[in-house]
Amino acid sequence: MEIKILGPGCANCHKMEELAKTAVKELGIDAKIEKISGIQEIMRYTISTPGLVVDGKLKHSGKPLPGLENVKAMIREEV
Which of 6, 13, 53, 74 is catalytic? Predict the structure, then answer.
């Protein structure tokens, strides 16, 4: 599984990355988590950050941030 965190490096982007890492760990899923900060690549998926992409599918973008259980559900949908 491939997970991308989209964002320029703001506090919410870091929080989204933490949520994704925790979700993957709690779910016991083998996943590669990659931070994407380049504006051109971010815009391939969304114009609102932070964003969460799971296996090429945009699952969340913008604020407010989803909670841990929501992030886990978004990831589980692609397992």
Answer: 13
